[in-house]
User: What shape does this take?
Amino acid sequence: MSNEPRLKIKYREEIASKLKDQLALENVMEVPTLSKIVLNMGLGEAVQNKKAIDEAVEELGLIAGQKPRVNRARKSIANFKVREGMPIGVSVTLRGARMWEFFDRLISVAIPRVRDFRGLNPRAFDGRGNYSVGASEQLIFPEIDFDSVSETRGMNITIVTTAIDDAGGKALLDAFGFPFRKAEAQV
Assistant: This one.
């Protein structure tokens, strides 16, 4: 039994060759793949509630499997009562095996747990093949204990690929079975 992540094996054995043919690429090194996944939780309430940062670090650590870094304000903004250096968010960057494992859990466990799910926006690409999606609550991940959560917090999930354009990025995510919203029929 290999310790290699399930989706990485599937990518190497099935998806890469299909993508090479589908995108009409000449070299196998041109085939897009996952580069990294960035999870980010912005915490506006951390200005008043100092405990929010600790809770977010713990929850994001459980979700990602590694300790997140605390993001601090770069400059003071008086209207938001933010001073330079105050903690205002947490983020974590996943690479390698952790990235593949998280991507597997995102597709097969977390996204199906979203209430009233109708698919993800297929136009949320950035022009360079990277995809960003927002999760409205951290409870979609099974690692989070529902009873221990004091407040639901949303997060941004950015999937960075090696694709050079949005078509390559979308083809890669489609090959993994990413649940994009289908186009509605015109009436």
Summary: The longest strand covers residues 34-42. Strands lie at 34-42, 69-72, 87-94, 131-135, 155-161. The radius of gyration is 18 Å.
